[in-house]
Design goal:
Shape: flat
Strand content: under 5%
Number of strands: 0
Distance between the termini: 60 Å
Number of domains: 2
Number of helices: 4
Largest sheet: none
Radius of gyration: 27 Å
């Protein structure tokens, strides 16, 4: 029974189980009937916008850079073992985060 715990065999067994469950679900679902209602966009009862929105990624990149600098800075500080050079690193990290917040 321990042979099913070997990763490649377990993977194949899980894929087979997922395929069986997927097929069983398709049998239970029945036949589909296409209609205009099924292919239309649902907007909670409101009319769908006709103009596509163009999302800006500036805010996303600012937040992503903030968290990247924060996490990498904390990792570097944690591996510094309390050396005096880490105070300089902490000051630089603080300035970089302030620049990202205010900028």
């Amino acid at each position: 029974m321990e042979v099913i715990l070997i990763p490649p065999i377990a993977f194949v067994l899980y894929i087979a189980l997922a395929g069986v469950l997927f097929g069983f679900g398709r049998v239970l679902a029945g036949k589909t009937k296409t209609s205009a209602m099924k292919s239309s966009t649902y907007a909670s009862g409101e009319e769908a916008p006709t103009v596509q929105a163009v999302p800006g990624y500036r805010q996303f990149f600012t937040v992503a850079l903030f968290f990247a600098v924060l996490h990498l800075g904390v990792l570097i500080l944690a591996t510094g073992a309390g050396s005096p050079a880490m105070l300089v690193m902490l000051a630089g990290l603080t300035l970089a985060l302030l620049a990202l917040i205010l900028g």
